[in-house]
Task: inverse folding
């Protein structure tokens, strides 16, 4: 795991490094909790993923959940055909990045799962500077290689990566 890069956290100048760390931890958990809530909005009965993009002042810039593109039929029955679902679904991270537009630059992306390589690439292109996600060992076998590539790309692009244990 890459060590944290210095990230601006709005704290009084009198805060000790320990207090700054505690503030960062508090905000990371808050935004991951919010991403969990946003994930519940997904119509996918098997996998619900949420994402939150927050700026350096801890203001929400965008939210996203996994689902079909706007304007497309999103009947639950379409999610049952895995092949068709994978062709149609827009990942939570990409939805949040697309909704944020240029406002994603210099922000943190919070995800309920590790981002896939394609979403990591989108985060890099959007100017995201930090990615925080919840560790998920049960899906590691199926998605492990993709997640490993995503993490490698983020680190190559000098993006801070933080993996938290589920709360």
Result:
């Amino acid at each position: 795991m890459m060590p944290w890069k210095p990230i601006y956290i709005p704290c009084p100048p009198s805060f000790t490094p320990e207090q700054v760390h505690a503030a960062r931890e508090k905000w990371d958990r808050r935004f991951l909790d919010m991403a969990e809530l946003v994930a519940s909005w997904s119509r996918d009965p098997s996998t619900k993923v949420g994402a939150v993009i927050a700026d350096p002042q801890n203001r929400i810039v965008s939210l996203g959940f996994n689902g079909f593109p706007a304007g497309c039929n999103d009947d639950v029955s379409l999610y049952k055909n895995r092949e068709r679902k994978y062709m149609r679904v827009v990942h939570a991270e990409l939805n949040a990045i697309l909704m944020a537009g240029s406002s994603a630059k210099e922000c943190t992306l919070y995800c309920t799962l590790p981002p896939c390589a394609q979403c990591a690439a989108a985060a890099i292109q959007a100017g995201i500077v930090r990615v925080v996600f919840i560790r998920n060992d049960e899906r590691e076998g199926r998605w492990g290689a993709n997640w490993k590539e995503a993490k490698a790309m983020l680190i190559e692009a000098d993006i801070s990566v933080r993996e938290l244990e589920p709360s």
